[in-house]
Write a structure and sequence with these properties.
single chain, alpha+beta, ten-stranded antiparallel β-sheet, three-stranded antiparallel β-sheet, 32% helix, G2P_N, Replication-associated protein G2P N-terminal domain-containing protein
Length: 352
């Protein structure tokens, strides 16, 4: 599902859109720079997006807008489920914004044609999957376990951020992967109307949310910074691409005869790891990664995945580590089709 997006789109409007300005003034009272603050447009069930003018013509009229927010939530009021079709979603979303008199967007026929062609520049896209793990308790148990024993290629171990969200690469300028129990988040932030819907609550409570955040640098590297380069499979491809980089293997110990084949210096490191020591904190960075790569090559064990300490009984009752690849992906429920709970984007072929 397409979640949060940030993009620039061509769209004519007579007066620049902003919510005031932020400027820098030097000691002589001269303005060094000025930038518009975004206007907050309110959509379904009080959800909102930020919008502002980013380009004007010679007459001071707006030619391009910047939009930052969650289009599916803006259209249907929640983001429990939605479409994978970024192209149609943004076309329908922009068309809806143009119907809001307070924004006063007046797109030309050429602007609309460019939307349909996908001439929209992206600077962020969040792609999500929902997995049925049975309950919020199971989702939380998975997150606690993954915090300790899962690693992401080129990002390392995850860290718990706000609430129960597990981040991999939280501060990366390129991309990040995060997991959280959707039921808890839904109860905190959903509109009160949705909290009275038992079908939505049940759907949210049994789900673990996986979310890939792809930012501008990574979008350009992947040649996905323009909407025209996306198709209906791109969203699921990206989520799976990052999930496959996640080391989800369960913690395991080697039998003694296998470890006997290790060189003495590697065997000592392996024995420390097996006892639950954090090897990364014990050696210089380059030494640690050399040992890690050599042990992985020799016996297929990743010492970045911590073992429970033999002196620590806190893990005895931990829930079995649920593999993401074995959890059941959650699609759009049948009961949502044909209702206001699911926004179905327009078919572009039917428009042009």
């Amino acid at each position: 599902m397409i979640d949060w997006t940030s993009f620039v789109a061509p769209c004519f409007h007579l007066n620049p859109i902003s919510n005031g300005s932020v400027l820098s003034v030097n000691v002589d009272g001269e303005t060094e720079w000025e930038t518009r603050k975004a206007y907050q447009a309110v959509g379904s069930h009080d959800s909102s997006v930020r919008i502002k003018t980013v380009a004007v013509n010679e007459y001071g009229q707006g030619t391009h807008i910047y939009v930052d927010g969650n289009p599916i939530k803006f259209m249907q009021g929640h983001n429990l489920f939605g479409t994978d079709n970024l192209h149609s979603l943004l076309y329908g979303f922009l068309s809806h914004l143009c119907q809001m008199p307070e924004i006063c967007l007046l797109p030309s026929e050429l602007d609309r044609k460019r939307w349909a062609q996908g001439d929209i520049e992206l600077s962020r896209v969040d792609c999500t999957y929902m997995f049925d793990v049975g309950s919020s308790d199971n989702a939380n148990a998975w997150i606690r376990y993954a915090e300790q024993y899962a690693t992401l290629s080129h990002r390392g171990k995850g860290q718990i951020g706000k609430g129960s969200t597990l981040y991999f690469g939280k501060h990366s300028r390129r991309s990040a992967l995060k997991f959280y129990p959707k039921g808890e988040e839904f109860k905190k932030h959903a509109h009160s109307d949705f909290l009275l819907n038992p079908s939505l609550l049940d759907y949210a409570n049994k789900s673990l949310r996986a979310e890939a955040v792809i930012r501008s640098m990574e979008l350009k590297r992947l040649n996905l910074n323009l909407v025209k380069n996306w198709d209906t499979d791109t969203c699921s491809y990206l989520v799976n691409y990052y999930l496959k980089r996640l080391n989800m293997s369960e913690v395991k110990a080697l039998v003694s005869d296998q470890s006997e084949n290790l060189k003495p210096r590697l065997k000592a490191v392996y024995e420390l790891w097996k006892l639950g020591h954090d090897i990364k904190s014990m050696y210089p960075r380059r030494t640690y990664f050399r040992y890690r790569n050599e042990i992985m090559k020799e016996i297929g064990i990743d010492i970045a995945v911590l073992q429970p300490s033999q002196k620590d009984d806190s893990m005895k009752n931990v829930v079995h580590f649920i593999r993401i690849t074995e959890a059941k992906p959650m699609g759009i429920p049948d009961w949502a089709y044909g209702t206001d709970l699911y926004y179905e984007p327009p078919a572009l072929k039917a428009i042009f």
